[in-house]
Amino acid sequence: MSDHNGVLFVPYRETLALLSVEDALAVCEEVYLMHARGSVVLSNPPSFKLDVADGFNNHWHVKSVLLKDIPSTGVRLYNYYDDGTRNTVGALSCTRYIALSDPRSGEPVAIVDEHWSYAIRSAAAATIACKWLGPRNPKVLGLVGVGTMGSNTLSCLLTMYKFEEIRCTSRRPETREAFARKWSKELRIPVLPKETIEEVVRGADVAVGGTTSNEVVSREPWLKPGSTFISLARRELDPAGWSKLDKVVIDSWEFNMLQREFKRMVEMGQFSRDDLYAEIAELVSGAKKGRERAEERILIHTTGLVSQDVALAHFLYRRALEKGVGIWLPAAHQ
Q1: Is residue 334 in a domain?
Q2: Are 163 and 244 within one domain?
Q3: Which residues of 306-332 are buried (b: 16+ CB within 10 A; e: fewer)?
Q4: Do 132 and 79 fall into the same domain?
Q5: Phi, psi for 41 (deg, rounded to 5)
Q6: Using CA atoms, how far apart are residues 300 and 231, in angstroms rounded to an integer?
């Protein structure tokens, strides 16, 4: 696995050119197949966190995985600031790296900046499930949140569908209006900024929740028959409405149970594992069917899998080697 030139550092600017939207979708799909095959080995515990308030509002998250099929092993680590008002988890200013090693020797291989791969993974890992769960020919897309997650999800969905109308909303009128101007010009279809979330979600064939809000954002009664709702974070869809949908599909029960909001929903009896239709890996592998009726209302909810993050980092490392880019750091034994 190692090319014995030291440790390759792949900087953020290089990752932008090395990893396309289509690449990210393909890698995320392949990793779901790895999970279905049982070839993914997670750390125990699966996530380590260091959260310090007391004036710092500092948060470390560390996860690790070994992917037998590549093979590759890596540790993902990120650090961000969150005081309840300002959250830098998606910002370029926060710490985000993945360290890769050769699993057969323990030899260091690469350090990859994951700002871009994390951002596109967050969208691709959920959007890929639309291959099995999306409406057949959606015309109207609703975007709740027009930041990084919303923009990247739009880019992923545009590889699958041709929309006739896009509605969007955000906390600030100026951001949604700028988003609408940019994308209506680029796509040459109406992209309409809306004042309320209900105006965006109600009547949409596909709706996407990608905000940083701690509050419930969208409501189940707004979802029309045949629609698919993609939830990318926290409480994008009212927990009270999950069990009323025809199918709920998530990336991982284990990893979602590590999230405070999801765990609270389960503990309050609003949703249970019996209410869950499938994990995405079951759809990708064919173990479970996708959309079975045109009128089904379906929720796709993801929290993110470290297996996909490490697989994308490995993809970036191999692509950087091929292109001759990146910065070589000396290994200790050299």
Answers
A1: no
A2: yes
A3: bbbbbbbbbbbbbbbbeeebbeeeeee
A4: no
A5: -115, 115
A6: 6
Residues 76 and 154 in one domain: no
- d(CA 40, CA 109) in angstroms, rounded, equals 19
CA 296 – CA 293 distance, rounded (Å): 6
Q: How far apart (Å, rounded) are the C-alpha atoms in residues 258 and 265?
A: 12
Residues 168 and 262 in one domain: yes
pLDDT range class, residue 1, cuts 50, 70, 90? very low
> Mind listing the pLDDT tens digit for each residue in 303-324?
999 999 999 999 999 999 999 9
Q: Which residue(s) pair with 193 in the sheet?
A: 168
Structure token digits, residue 25:
């979708």
- Per residue in 106-131, pLDDT (tens digit) is 999 999 999 999 999 999 999 999 99
Cα angle, residue 11 at apex, residues 50 and 21 outer, rounded to 5° = 90
Give the phi and the psi of residue 111 in degrees, each rounded to 5.
Answer: -125, 120
Q: Are 140 and 272 contained in the same domain?
A: yes
Closest CA to 26 of 151, 160, 187: 160
The residue written with tokens 């600017």 in the block is 13
Nearest to 183 by CA among 196, 202, 171, 170: 170
Q: What is the mean pLDDT of the chain?
A: 95
Whole-model pTM: value is 0.95
pLDDT value, residue 273: 96
